[in-house]
Amino acid sequence: MNQLNDQNPNQIFSILGSAVSQCPNYDSKLNYLLESRKIFLFNQVLQQQIQFIKDKNSLLNQQLIQPQKKQRRKANEISKIYKCTQCEKSYGSEASLNLHSKLKHPMIESESKTQIEHSFQI
């Protein structure tokens, strides 16, 4: 404040005059309070949209980093069309049936050879 008192009044007016000349002209027909409220509300909406996009972006990044596990089907949702010929158990895939057969109904070596020989006969 002392610097302003020390300066020549003409210099102060020239500084103020240059600042005022850079401002837009005052329009008496405009309601500047209403305009400032509109701008404020518009900025609020933009900030909310930006925050929404940031949140959505962070969720997408998390999904890229940690993809969700594949949901397994429940036992009652699987159609069991493959049936075991020896014990009548049913399975949802041929691989499951084959695994069951190997584990629960192991063939004796001689039985498996005779089955293979019969399958190759024409």
Summed up:
With 122 residues, this protein is mostly helical. It is 62% helix and 3% strand.
What would your notes on this structure say?
The chain is mainly alpha-helical. The chain contains five helices and two strands, in the order H-H-H-E-E-H-H. The chain has a two-stranded antiparallel sheet. A hairpin with a 6-residue loop joins strand 1 (82-83) and strand 2. The chain is rod-shaped and about 115 Å long. The model has no long low-confidence stretch (mean pLDDT 78). InterPro entries: Znf_C2H2_type. One of its GO terms (molecular function) is zinc ion binding.
Helix and strand arrangement:
Blueprint: H1 2-6, H2 9-22, H3 32-65, E1 82-83, E2 90-91, H4 94-104, H5 109-120
Antiparallel strand pairs: 1-2
SS summary, helix count: 5
Distance between the first and last residues' Cα: 114 Å
Number of DSSP-assigned strands: 2
User: Major sheet: order of its strands?
Assistant: 1-2
Characterize the biggest β-sheet: 2 strands, antiparallel
Shape: rod-shaped
Unreliable segments of 5+ consecutive residues: none
- Kindly estimate the percentage of residues that lie in beta strands according to DSSP: under 5%
**Rg from Cα:** 42 Å
Order of secondary-structure elements: HHHEEHH
- Helix content percent band: 55-70%
The assigned structural class equals mainly alpha
What is the typical, i.e. mean, pLDDT? 78
Short descriptors:
122 residues, rod-shaped, single chain, mainly alpha
